[in-house]
Amino acid sequence: MASDGRGTVLAMYPGQGAQYTGMCRRLLADFPYTAQTFEHIEDLMQMRIRHMCLVGDREQLMQTVNTQPCLFAASMAYHAVLQREADFRPALHAGHSLGEFSALAASGKLSLATASRLVRVRGQVMQALVGKGEMLAVLGAKLETVAALVQRVGEASGEVVDIANHNSPQQVVIAGTVAGVRALDEQLQAEGIKRIKVPVSAPFHSRLMLPAEQQMEKLIMAAAFVSNDSLVIANYRGEITPYQPDFLVKQISNPVRWVASIEAAIAFGCDICVEVGSGRILSGLLRRFPTWHGKCYPLEDDLRTFLQVVG
Q1: pLDDT value at position 6?
Q2: In what order do the strands lie in the sheet with 194-198?
Q3: If you ran DSSP here, which 8-state letter would residue 76 be given?
Q4: pLDDT under 70: residue ranges of the chain
């Protein structure tokens, strides 16, 4: 149902932050065949993913090395339902950070096996950088204002401070060294700008992630990408353009251009959005876009409703 009179669909796939103990319990109960998707990914990754999702220790689930495989598997399980129940074919795919791997697998540009193996290694190499920095969400300030402050603080302190995510017109996330982020925090406070510490274990999408990017580059560039008609908006570019494998490499140390991605989807004509995976974070961000006037379905809440819409 890319565009068939009922709407033009953007499929969004969440990244870290959407995880919680108990996720996918309802999905597995309502659609028991999704256990096969989990089993396949568990075999590929050699992990007890369902145990961590359903009943595992929260601290264990919050570790990047576990979070990323669990969220990927959750998105793939929801995707399996859409495929089986509705022959789901959206006009566009877009994944936030880790979610880009889910988008590539759902679109057929990567096989499930290849994407699973890449996600497993990505979680491992990023876990190795835990403790190297922190992240801060800046609320209510324009990107240009935040970018100017980031540059000023970085130059004055000599610390790494980077824009990591532009999530919505009202939210910019910063990543960097502990000293760098705290220096920026002090400057934001002086400017009267609201900010919230992001509860993550590493400075994702900053220059501090270059060691992980370098480790992933060879694996990603050697992976078999399929050339097909599916359109995937890359975090690195934030625009609708033919997908290149190096986009997936560069997103590791570069910002997630989510605002640009959503604006590209709106300009393309998307008026239905479906969040394919755990939680409703991306749906919440979408509602903050003044140019979005369509419908949004976070599948965790609205799976059966959405199936009726596309059925």
Answers
A1: 64
A2: 161-168, 171-176, 134-139, 194-198
A3: H
A4: 1-6, 311
pTM over 0.90: yes
Q: Per-residue pLDDT tens for 208-218? A: 999 999 999 99
Instruction: Give the pLDDT score at 1.
Output: 47
What is the 3-state secondary structure of 116-162?
HHHHHHHHHHHHCCCCCCEEEEEECCCHHHHHHHHHHHHHHHCCCEE
Q: Are 142 and 149 in contact (CB under 8 A)?
A: no
205 is catalytic: yes
- What long-range pairs does 142-147 form, CB within 8 A, spacing at least 24? 143/172, 143/259, 145/193, 146/172, 146/174
pLDDT for the residue numbered 297: 96
Buried b (16+ CB within 10 A) or exposed e, 233-254: bbbbbbebeebebebbbbbbbb
- Per-domain residue ranges of the chain: 9-128+208-310, 134-200
The catalytically annotated residue of 79, 93, 97, 201 is 97
Q: Which of 93, 96, 166, 205 is catalytic?
A: 205
Q: What is the sign, positive or negative, of the torsion defined by CA atoms of 246, 12, 43, 213?
A: positive
Helix H or strand E encompassing 11: strand 9-13
pLDDT for the residue numbered 5? 47
**CATH architecture of the region 134-200:** 2-Layer Sandwich (3.30)
Output the 3-class SS for 280-292. CHHHHHHCCCCCC
* CATH of region 9-128+208-310, choose from 3.40.50.10330, 3.40.366.10, 3.50.50.60, 3.40.50.2300: 3.40.366.10
